[in-house]
Amino acid sequence: MAAAGGLRVGDLVWGKLGRYPPWPGKIVNPPKDLKKPRGKKCFFVKFFGTEDHAWIKVDQLKSYHIHKEEMIKINKGKRFQQAVDAVEEFIKKSKVPAPTLLEDKNKHKSTEDRKQNSSVTEISEYITRKRGRPAKDEKDTLPESTTVKRMVTGPGSGFEWKQVKTDPHFHHFLLSQSEKSGASSASARTLKTTAEEEAESTSIQPADSTANNGSVSPTDKRIGFLGLGLMGSGIVANLLKMGHTVTVWNRTGDKCDPFIQEGARLGRTPAEVISTCDITLSCISDPKAAKDLVLGPSGVLQGIRPGKCYVDMSTVDPETSIEISQVITSRGGRFLEAPVSGNRQISEKGMLVILAAGDKLLFDECSSCFQAMGKKSFYLGEVGNASKMMLIVNMILGSFMASVAEGFTLAKIADQSQEVLFYILSQGPLASTFLDQKCQNILQGIFNPDFLLKHIQKDLRLALAMGDSAKQPTPMAATANEVFKKAKALEQSENDMSAVYLAYNQ
């Protein structure tokens, strides 16, 4: 008997999970001991090309056959193609004829009509409301921004579904990058509102995140990426997952191997990557390395020709960024600085915050790349502005980390439980994923790198120099910098920034 929406057990479908591309699967009967989630109607789907499965809501499922050509056009990743091949092999072996386009459309027509009429009604109501705070009885009826966007998108717009949370009964690699705690989500919503209000009154222009916009349609431009460190590796992984064509290079070539296996191409030198790609991004450790990458032998500059685009995502001082911009543009190239706020885990989850400045058109052309790697992008104007803002952000981050380490040390000396301190902090206004991770590191005495200690110390040093140049005292950051320098002297450079705790306990 056909289930709601015209779907039933045995149907081949496209299942949409969170912010990731629609994936081919088959509706199957769930294990007897697996309870169906409460709420909207859903089906248990086994995904092709993986050993994963999930409860998927009806409004996140579409017929495989009717949307096949559409999905193949907008998703080009290697894993995706392998999954599609697995579906086709299944169809061939099972000898089940695919329904004709007319049959499949008729099967789902009534459901689609209901959805479209519902969306039009919601939009009409939304447009007619007055701007400003809604009345109390309206708060729960205002449509999400995705409701409006659903009516204006192109191919694949049927998959602009709402964000979903991970079901406790399964884990799927497509969902592994979309989870956030309730507290973090609430904070993010507050920050987003503040940032967008600020943007309306200044030149700051935030770009929407993929978490809000749904799946990403990858640019058809060839993307290059230089530097596969803690941050770069996560960025490239997400570019590939979202179907971008990527060429990679790293100083130590073995770091490229995992990405080549996932469909990336290998560039022998930075110059070669620049010359063969339309837009090349880089994420390098410090100002010297960033300049060497551009000006050194077989460097970026040797591959620059008129129209070639270079996006430097390294955290450097504004002077370095301006210098790189000048040499790139002097050869007819286009330049954008775009340092990122986050760490290894955030990079892997595709939830970075990108601060960009420089060529505005290039910023727009990088939209799908930024959406793949981050939750929010900001355009801050002329080159140098993004570097300045990034150093300020990391100055605050480093100073906060030093304060946390100092507080845990004092708790220990004062015979107070560090575990209780952590719990108290996690229940108060400082609660955050960052605080949770760093406190856990301190309590366990394990400092596996998520944000290298040497890098946060470098950022503190550059922020202090920026303060000196502006004749602005930064005593808190100066003190934190000294503590991190002591931690470096204790050979903690390659550990996580939370290892600064050891500087207080040696």
From TrEMBL:
Residues 101-154, 176-218 are annotated as: Disordered. Keywords: Chromosome. Residues 176-188 have a biased composition (Low complexity). GO terms for biological process: transcription elongation-coupled chromatin remodeling. GO terms for molecular function: DNA binding; NAD binding; NADP binding; nucleosome binding. Its main location: nucleus. It is found in: Chromosome. Residues 9-61 form the PWWP domain. It comes from the Eukaryota. GO terms for cellular component: chromatin. Residues 102-116 have a biased composition (Basic and acidic residues). The keyword Secreted does not apply. Residues 204-218 have a biased composition (Polar residues). The keyword Amino-acid biosynthesis does not apply. It holds the Pfam family NAD_binding_2. Belongs to the HIBADH-related family. NP60 subfamily. This is Cytokine-like nuclear factor N-PAC. The gene is glyr1.
